[in-house]
Amino acid sequence: MFSNRFTQTFGIDTPIVCGGMTGVGTADLIAPVAEAGALGFLTALTQPTPQALADEISRCKEMTDRPFGVNLTILPTVQPVPYDEYLSAIVDSGVKVVETAGANPAPYLPALKAAGIKVIHKAVSVRHAVKAQSVGVDAVSVDGFECAGHPGEDDVPGLILIAAAARELTVPIIASGGFATGSGLVAALALGADAINMGTRFVATQEAPVHQSVKDQIVANTERDTVLVFRKFGNTARVARNSVSEEILEISSRPDTTFDDIAHLASGERGRHGVLRQGDMEAGMWWAGQSQGLIHEVLTCREVVETIMAEARSVVSARLDAFAFVEA
């Protein structure tokens, strides 16, 4: 058991979060995360319809009585998304924590707050984190440059970003991007964060609903086995290095290319079905962070959480206590 303002606010045992992940954030993973004492988020848009989301929330409740939340990422899409209907499914299902990402969450906060729902917003810069705080969110998850997914365009790593955010924010801060160990948790707390968010680490767990080949690839990969795609189009994304992501980079480097030239390679269907479900690691683009270099085995969610907390205690007692500060 670990207690600080984050664990107290959200009713969990450890300052560890498993944020929403497309194609991965289902009850199969999030219920074990919750049972391990961490805070996990079902991914709303992984479900094809609002009713399917309501069904998935019910399934997760049948698997755990511990707190969990739902991620709602609000982004422009080719096919319109009925965000209001997904929001209603979340509210009507009695979910008490929502993680928002993408667009400003302000339009959705009145309905969420009226239902007694706490809101965590994901941000990739201090200015966006401050804006989220100003509109009334309960906590901010700040993503450093190391993260999987979209790290923004500023290229500020967590060592700087978390400390800079801590100077400006009063709400609890979740440090995200590059975290997979107990020493990372201690570092995040020292920088001013209240918790850490891990995505890639939880993908490499026994319960994660992805093919074993994906988990084994994460373990085999190093911190150098990611690439940044879509930078040319102002939507930078960190993904695992494979033949598809390398081809996307190569095409993007040509003069006058547009997103249409790589859309067939960047297809989410290829990544979700070919890679995550079927285990063909060259079938499509898939998301992974630089924390791959810190992941050396596939464990259960409980083992991941317990190992991180034990290592954090060891770091504090064995390493930090060894320092002696002498007055000049």
Detailed description of the structure:
- The chain contains 13 helices and 10 strands.
- It is of the alpha/beta class and 328 residues long.
- It folds into 2 domains: 5-209 and 297-316, Aldolase class I (TIM Barrel); 226-277, no CATH class.
- The strands form 2 sheets. It has an 8-stranded parallel barrel with strand order 1-2-3-4-5-6-7-8, surrounded by 5 helices. A two-stranded antiparallel sheet has the order 9-10.
- Helix 7 (158-168) links the parallel strand 6 (139-143) and strand 7.
- Helix 2 packs parallel to helix 3 (50-63) and helix 8 packs across helix 13.
- It starts with a helix and ends in a 9-residue tail after the last helix.
Write the SSE topology.
Elements: H1 5-10, E1 16-18, H2 27-35, E2 39-43, H3 50-63, E3 69-74, H4 83-92, E4 97-102, H5 109-114, E5 118-123, H6 126-135, E6 139-143, H7 158-168, E7 173-176, H8 182-191, E8 195-197, H9 200-203, H10 212-220, E9 226-229, E10 237-240, H11 243-252, H12 268-277, H13 301-319
Parallel strand pairs: 1-2, 1-8, 2-3, 3-4, 4-5, 5-6, 6-7, 7-8
Antiparallel strand pairs: 9-10
Q: In percent, how helical is the residue content? A: 25-40%
Uncertain segments are none
Sheet with the most strands, sense and barrel status: 8 strands, parallel, barrel
Secondary-structure-based class equals alpha/beta
SSE sequence, one letter per element = HEHEHEHEHEHEHEHEHHEEHHH
Distance between the termini: 38 Å
Report the top-level CATH class of the largest domain: Alpha Beta
